[in-house]
Amino acid sequence: MKSVKKILFGAFAFAALSFGLASCADDEEESLKCVAEYVGTGSAQDSDGVICTCTVRASFYNNKEYKIDMNATAVATGESAATATIDGTIEIGTYTGDATKDGTVRCTATKEYDDEQEKLVDVATKTTDEVTIANGEFTLDLSDEFENLEVTLKRK
C-alpha cells in the first residue's frame, strides 16, 4: 500500500497541473489583481480504504498568472492507520484564455509542490493543460492519483 502522504501529495500535484489556487484577498502587490476565483470541495475513498477530503481554490490574476491552494486530509484506518494533511500552495503558473467567463483556459505550471522537499519547486518539464469552464465551473479529475477523486470548482 502506498503511504498516505505519497497518495495525498500525488493527487494534489496532479490537481496542480490543471489549475492554480489562491485567495484573491492574498494579493502580494497592489497592482496585482485577482480577476477570477474558483472554489470546490471533493472526497473519495480508495481501494485500500484511505479517505481523502479536500478544498481547492484556483485564482487567476490580471498578469496572466494563476495560483492553486489546497487544504486536504487523507486518513487511513486499520493496521496502516495514519493521517496526512496539506494546507498551502501546490502550484503556480501562467495561463492563456479568459478565466472570467465560460470557455477554454490553458494553464502551464512553473512551480509545483514537491512532497519529498515539502515546498514549491521549479517544474522540470513544462506542459500545458486545458480546462473547460462551463456555467461558471470546471471539474478536476484526480482519479489517476487517488481513486475516484474529482473536485468541481465554482466561480465565486
Question: How would you describe what is shown here?
Answer:
This protein is mainly beta and 156 residues long. It has one domain (4-155). 10% of the residues lie in helices and 53% in strands. It contains one helix and nine strands. The protein has one helix at 4-18, and strands spanning 34-45, 51-61, 65-76, 82-96, 103-114, 119-122, 128-133, 137-141, 150-155. Strands 1, 2, 3, 4, 5, 6, 7, 8 and 9 form a nine-stranded antiparallel β-sheet that branches. Strand 1 (34-45) and strand 2 (51-61) form a beta hairpin. The radius of gyration is 15 Å and the shape is globular. It starts with a helix and ends with a strand. It comes from Treponema saccharophilum DSM 2985. Residues 1-25 form the signal peptide. Keywords: Signal. This is Lipoprotein.
In short:
By secondary structure, the chain is mostly beta strands. Helix content is about 10%, strand content about 55%. A hairpin with a 5-residue loop joins strand 1 and strand 2.
Keywords summarizing the entry:
10% helix, 9-stranded antiparallel β-sheet, mainly beta, 156 residues, 1 helix
Topology, element by element:
Blueprint: H1 4-18, E1 34-45, E2 51-61, E3 65-76, E4 82-96, E5 103-114, E6 119-122, E7 128-133, E8 137-141, E9 150-155
Antiparallel strand pairs: 1-2, 1-9, 2-3, 3-4, 4-5, 5-6, 5-7, 8-9
Keywords: Signal
Signal peptide: 1-25
Protein name: Lipoprotein
